[in-house]
Amino acid sequence: MLVANIATLTLAKAHMFAFWLFQQAADDAGTIGWDPIHLWKQMSWVAQVVVIILFIMSAWSIGVMIDRWIAFSAARKQSRQFAPVVAGALREGKLDEAIRVAERNKKSHLAKVVTAGLQEFKAHGESTEIPGEQIEASKRALERAEAIVHAELKRGLGGLATIGSTAPFVGLFGTVIGILNAFKKISEQKATGLGAVAGGISEALVTTALGLFVAIPAVMMFNYFTGKVEAFDVEMDNSSSELVDYFLKRTAGSAVRR
């Protein structure tokens, strides 16, 4: 209970201590500025390189996020329009119509898989000599299409994961440089006041904050998009299974008619 009370009191007074610390630093070194421009000018060239790298990583990750968001939204929208139409065409036995519908929805992950299966099944329709070869060829085509579409859906996500895991360490490198600069200033000025270390400490905190600012959204969106890809994989697996069942029924029906 005593420890909890002490922790509560410490958190309550933390903002007052932080305000006093920065105020004291400003009083000790009147030239220290805390706006972005002054912070940039106060940084060493190594820390500036770190900041530039973090901004490049942030811009790249944002580009991947936008690209994947647009691609996934288009895939979801077209798949919702595609599924009932192609199902109706298949119920009526119109393979050519189903293929045309699938080819019109090129952004749909389901359409890409279904197209491959339908085209393979149609190609082996009249030329199959070995019983079951038509179905096996269609299965292989579906599996290949699923693998290709899965790779397309995951494009850029590996880089997003890399940024999410490495950005904090890039920021930490800038933190180390800032601390070293702070000790260097102490050595040069023969002083230990806050004014002597304010520049180095601000440099360290800025690079740390930027590293976290880049990493946190990248990790969150990587997990979100990975979940989307897994959901798309399940949908493609289900569609492939249903299409194979349709091929089996159609083949069995053809054999009965013969």
* Strand segment tally: 0
From the N-terminal CA to the C-terminal CA, the straight-line distance is: 86 Å
- Helices and strands, in order, run as HHHHHHHH
Gyration radius, to the nearest Å?
Answer: 30 Å
Percent of residues in helices comes to over 70%
* Global geometry: rod-shaped
Main sheet record: none
**Structural class designation:** mainly alpha
| Average pLDDT, all residues | 77
Kindly give the count of domains: 2
Q: Could you please describe the fold and organization of this structure?
A:
This protein has two domains: 1-30; 32-257, no CATH class. The chain is 87% helix and 0% strand. It is built from eight helices and no strands. It has helices at residues 2-28, 36-42, 45-91, 95-104, 109-123, 133-153, 157-189, 194-257. The longest helix is centred in the last third of the chain and has 64 residues, at 194-257. The chain is rod-shaped, with a radius of gyration of 30 Å. It starts with a helix and ends with a helix. Mean pLDDT is 77; it is low at 1-30.
Short description:
This protein is an all-alpha fold and 258 residues long. 87% of the residues lie in helices and 0% in strands. It contains 8 helices and no strands.
What keywords describe this structure?
single chain; 258 residues; mainly alpha; 2 domains; rod-shaped; disordered N terminus
